[in-house]
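Issue 218. Parser rejects a valid record. Input:
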Amino acid sequence: MVDKNFMAITISAALIGAVFIIVWMNIGKLRVRLGAIYYAIPLIIILTITGILVHQTTWHLERMENSYRETVDRFLSRKWQLVVSQLDSLQEENYELSKELTDSIISQLQDMPSVYLDDQLSSIGEEGNVIQKVVDDITREVYFRNVVGDTNDPFALIIGKGEEDSFVFSNHSQVHALEVVTHSMEQEYHVLRQAVGGDVLAKHTFKRILGLETGTPSESFLFLQVKPRPEGEIEALTLQDLRNIFKENDGDLKKTFEGIEFLAPHYIYRDGSIGGTPRMENRMKTDAKTIGVISSFGYLSVLESNSDLQAPLRYYDELAQANKARYLAEMRSTLIIGLLVMGIIYVLLILFWLFMHINVEDVFNS
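Output the parser choked on:
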């Protein structure tokens, strides 16, 4: 629906122009001698009215676009709040799953002698390692919400003093398959570089995990890119960065979360190894190793498998589509009315040209 003020100004300008033209065409009857200026009057009238209409139409279109963008931003903000709310809920489940896996691992290892466990920790990755077998058996064929996919299965890593003696030792995902096992984080960075075209996000996230961070609250979520995207590696390290990508793509969830998995770590243990050796002594790091059990989920894959999660998001998409359709309809109506009125004015200009050539002698003789 076209704005009432725009219609009022447009119609008023057209009527005023018409009145001036009629007066001009009958000026001879008033016996007013104007000479050559007589022909300049309608040009001035027509150009002035045209300028007013062009300015009014342009101003109205800009105002419509600003109003449309404000509405879009409002819808996007509400949709993003819903997305974060869903992610918060899913992450709670993710942490519950990682804790369940951790408790299961502890229950199978806690009765073993401490010295034996520490010895096994130091030899993880070698054939016949007890801890390796227990962790592999517990995490195998486990998927977040039973949604089978490479972004929804857990993995485990050994956390030492730093990147040089930390590495993922249990991972059943095809995405992270290794050709040669090395006992450092460089193997993970190499795999992800090949998979997604970069390792900036991987280094950022694993550095936080090696620092035994939990990744809560939502502003501190831990996530990785494990699958390729059209633009290569995602330029996002925080949830706020993902929000910016979300807005840049007008709320497109696929373009925002494609290839992303959210991580929920649980540690055995934060202050020492499972064998009881403390990680810190006299303010110095020891050789004690911590096991990090990381549950993960891909937001898109979980969303696709759950219609209850999709429904409220679809509502905002429908609102956005209706808003866009209304904006385009109003823009078309405004342009049509503006062009129609200006077309009428130019018809008057043609009539003036004809009138001038037919009656030029009569005017100068009057």
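Fixed in the parser; the record now loads. The mean pLDDT is 80.
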